[in-house]
Amino acid sequence: MKLTIPEIEIMSSGHVACQGCGATLAFRYALKALGRETIVVIPACCWSIIDGPFPYSAAGVPLFHTAFETAGSTASGVRAALDIKGIDNVSVLAWAGDGGTMDIGIQALSGAVERGEDIIYVCYDNEAYMNTGIQRSSSTPYGAWTTTTPAKNFKTGPKKNMVEIMVAHKIPYTATANIAFPEDFIAKLKKAKSIKGPKFIQIISPCPAGWKFSSQLTIKLAKLSFEACVFPLYEVENSRYTVKKPNKKTDVREYLNLQGRFKHLNSDAMGLIQKNIDEEWGLLLKKERTSDEKCAETDAKA
Amino acid sequence: MKKVITGNHAVSFGAKLARVEVIAAYPITPQTEVVEKLSEIVSDGELAAKFIKVESEHSAMAACIGASVTGARAFTATSSQGLALMHEMLHWATGARVPIVMANINRTLGPPWNIWSEQTDSLSQRDTGWLQFYCENNQEILDTVIQAFKICEKVSLPGMICLDAFYHSHTSEVVDLPEQKSIDKFLPKYDPKYKLDINEPHTFGGLTSPEWYYELRYKIQSSMEDALGVISETGKEYAAITGRRYGLIDEYKTEDADEILITAGAMSQTAKEAVDLMREKNKKVGLLRIRTFRPFPKNEVRKIIKRAKSAGVIDRDISFGSEGIFFQEVKSALYRESARPPIYGFIAGLGGRDVTIDEIIKIAESMPKMARNNEFTWVGAKI
Ligand SMILES: Cc1ncc(C[n+]2csc(CCOP(=O)(O)OP(=O)(O)O)c2C)c(N)n1
Ligand code: SF4
Description:
The structure holds two protein chains of two kinds. Chain A is of the alpha/beta class. Chain A is built from eleven helices and eight strands. Chain A has helices at residues 22-34, 46-50, 71-84, 98-103, 106-114, 162-168, 182-194, 208-211, 218-227, 252-257, 267-301; strands at residues 38-42, 63-65, 91-97, 120-125, 173-178, 199-204, 233-237, 240-244. The mean pLDDT of chain A is 97. Chain B is α/β, with parallel strands linked by helices. In chain B, 41% of the residues lie in helices and 19% in strands. In chain B, the strands form three sheets. In chain B, strands 3-2-4-5-7-6-13 form a seven-stranded mixed β-sheet, sandwiched between helices. In chain B, strands 10-12-11-14-15-16 form a six-stranded mixed β-sheet, sandwiched between helices. A two-stranded antiparallel sheet of chain B has the order 1-8. The radius of gyration of chain B is 21 Å and the shape is globular. Chain A binds chain B through residues 36-39, 41, 48-49, 51-57, 59-67, 69-70, 72-85, 90, 107-108, 110-111, 114-115, and chain B through 21-22, 24, 48-50, 52-56, 58-60, 62-72, 74, 88-89, 92, 96, 196-198, 201-209, 212. β2 (63-65) of chain A pairs parallel with β9 (203-204) of chain B. The structure holds thiamine diphosphate and iron/sulfur cluster (SF4).
C-alpha cells in the first residue's frame, strides 16, 4: 500500500507533552497536511506548554501564543494583516483545546466564523481542561470523572455538540477527525486548506493523564471511540453530511472500561451511555440521509 | 487643510493619515463615530485597510495584536466598559511588544450607567504598559494619533490616546489636517524586524520561566523610559512639518507662578481661561498640563512644581480608598525634593459634571490658605 502521509516532519522532537499525548500527534499531522506555509495561533491550553519553553519551540512554523479566549479573534487579525499585505499562500491555523473552543473561546470563534474569516480552526478535543489539571469542560462526556466532577458527583449533562453549533453557522466546512486515522485527518485538512472561508475541525485526542489510561493505549482508545460511535467521524460540506461508518459498531463498555475516568460507573449508567450513543448515532445517520436528499433537491433545481 | 470636525473625527482622520492597515473595533458610546467614519473612509477606498467588525472589545484588541504581530499597522478605539473588557489583552499587547495605537474616549464606568466624561477608565489601565497621552483639544488629538504610531513603533509598545467624552468627542473645532505626503515622510511604513513570517519562523509568547521573564519585564520598563526621549524628539520632528509642537507636558504661565494648577485633558482649556482671569487680577497662577501620563514625566513635573508656593492637582478620576490618580503621581514625582511646596488634591467633574471657570478660580484661591496636610477635597459635591 502506498503511504499517503507526507514524510515531511515540520514539528520537531523535544516538545514537552506527556507520554502518549493524543494532542501532540494531532498537531504533528496537522503540519504535515498544511505544510510550512502556515501561521499558527494557540490560546492557553496544553499546547501552550507542549511547544516547549522559551527560547525553544517544537512547532517549526511561525506561532503566536495568545490569551485563552482569543484563538478566533487573534487568527482573524493575522489573516487581515496577511490580506492587506497581499500574502495569499499562507494558511492561518487556530489551534485550541476544547475549553478554549467550546467554553471561554466560543464567542470569538462564533464571531470569526460568522464574519467568514478565511481561517482553519482545529479544536483538539481531550474532553476536559487538562492544562490546569483535569477540570470538566462543556466537552466532558456524561459520566466522566474530573477534578471538578468527582466520582460521587460525576458529570451528568451531555457533551456539548460543537460540530452542530458550527454547522448552524453555515460555514463551508466542518468536520470531525481522529488521531487513529491520520490519513483521514490529513485529507480533511487539505480539503479545508483548499476552501476559502471559515473551516472547523474537531479532532478527538485521548489524554492519558486526564482519562486515566496507560500511555500505550492512546491510539487504541481513539479507534474505539470511532468503532463504538462515541465520537463519530463525519464531514459537513455546505450542509451536506458524510458519515464514515465502522464495519461493526462495538459496545461502548469496552471503550469505557479502559479508562479510569469512568471506573465508578455502574452498569445502569453504562447502559444509559450506550442508549444515548445509539440515539445520537441514529440521528446523525438520519441527518446524513436528509441532508443528502435536500442537497440533491437543490442541486436539481440549480 | 482646515476643517471643522469633532474630536472623534479628528481620531479617524489621524488614523487615516497614519495609513493604518488593520482596524478592529466594537461600538460603544461615545466612541462609535470614530469607527463609523473610518468604515466610511475604508469603504470609499480612501484608505487601504482591512476593517474587522469584531464581536467584542476583547476580540478587537486580540485581532489588533494578531495583525500587529504579523507586521500590519493596527488601530482601534474604545471607551469605558469596552476598555475594561480589554484589560487582559492590554497586558498581552505590551508583553507581545506590539505598537498598536488606540483612542480611548474617557467615559465613566458603571453602574450606574453614565456616558459622560471621566478619566478613571484609562487611568485604571495605567499599569498595563501602554503609553498614555491626554489631549487638550481636537487638533492635538489628530496630531497625537499620528505621532503615537511613530513613537510606539520606535519603542515597540502600544499607545493610548485619551480624549474626553463629549467635551472632545462630540464638540467641533477647527482642525488643521496635514498633507498626506508630509505625514508619509514623517511616518514610514511599519516593517518590524520580527513578525509572523513563514520565511523566517519565530515563536512568540511561549512559556518563559523566572530565568527570563524578569528580564523581559525589565526591557519593557527601559523602553518606557526611552519613550520619554522619543516623545520629545518626535514632537520636534512633527513641529518641523506642521509648526505644532507637543512634548511630555504643557506649561501655561508657570514661570513666575505662586500657585500651579495641574490638569489633564479637556478641563485644561477651562483652567487656562481661569488662569487668564486671575492673571488679570494680578494673581500669579499658572497651569501645568500633563500630556504624557505613561511614561510619567517625573523630571519635568518636579522642575516646574518646586518653583511654586503650592500646587493643586485637579483629578477627573478617583482611585477608591486612595485619592486622585494624577495627584498620587505628582506627589511621588516630588518625593526626592527636600524642599517641596504643599500639594493639594481636588476631585472634580466625575461623571461628566461640569468643572467651571469659577470653580477652578475658587480652587486656586483656596490653595494659599490651605493647611499643609490637607489631603484632598471633593469640589462641589452635594454632601
Ligand atoms: C482567562 C483565563 N482563565 C483561565 C485560564 C487558565 N487556563 C489555562 S489553560 C486552561 C484549560 C485549557 O483547557 P482546554 O482548552 O480544554 O485545553 P487543554 O488544556 O485540555 O489542552 C485554563 C482554565 C487562563 N489561561 N485564562
Ligand atoms: S495532559 Fe493530556 S493533553 Fe495535556 S499534554 Fe498531557 S496527555 Fe497531552
